[in-house]
Write a structure and sequence with these properties.
83% of the residues lie in helices and 0% in strands. The chain contains seven helices and no strands.
Length: 184
């Protein structure tokens, strides 16, 4: 990459870091909001394993790269089983809020995982997951208007994810226009 493309590369990297920070903050906030020990455990069981697998895949650890498909299936089974248990033992509104929260975190993890990819299909997944996260969290944000500190924290999360998406997409569009980035 030429010297001219370094500013755009830094912009892409900063956008990815903003999304990563949002994942960690969203996980912590969700655990604080859902103040039930078993619900928190269910949330941790559905969000932490995908996050850890994503980190190991980004670090290109051999075991995780070779077994990515199997791990994806295992994570999907884990999420389905834990969410089924949540629905079986808790009332519908609490179970539904837990599932929506874990789903939005998983969307954000997928968005972050594909944020710096140069493959067209991965870029589409990145964009769809990022926009879906924002669309899921806007009603949650509006629901928390009466609780000012939750409203502010959710607003900050949505803004940081939106800014991360904007930085990555705008930098890539500039690089693509100048011929410095070609999707595969």
């Amino acid at each position: 990459m030429s010297i001219k493309g370094k500013a755009e590369s830094i912009s892409r990297f900063v956008g990815s870091i903003l999304i990563l920070i949002s994942i960690v903050l969203e996980m912590c906030l969700s655990i604080l909001i859902l103040n039930n020990l078993l619900i928190n455990l269910m949330l941790i069981l559905t969000t932490v394993p995908p996050f850890m697998v994503s980190i190991f895949l980004k670090l290109e650890k051999d075991f995780f790269v070779k077994n990515a498909r199997v791990l994806s299936y295992l994570l999907l089974i884990d999420i389905i089983v834990v969410n089924s248990i949540t629905f079986a033992f808790y009332n519908t509104s609490l179970a539904l809020s837990t599932i929506i929260t874990s789903s939005s975190i998983i969307l954000l993890i997928i968005c972050w995982h594909f944020s710096l990819s140069i493959y067209k299909i991965n870029k589409r997944i990145f964009f769809i997951c990022g926009v879906s996260y924002i669309l899921i969290n806007i009603p949650i944000l509006l629901d928390n208007i009466s609780v000012s500190h939750l409203f502010i924290i959710n607003l900050i999360l949505i803004i940081s994810v939106s800014l991360g998406l904007f930085l990555i997409i705008s930098a890539e569009l500039i690089m693509k226009k100048k011929g410095w980035l070609n999707y595969i």
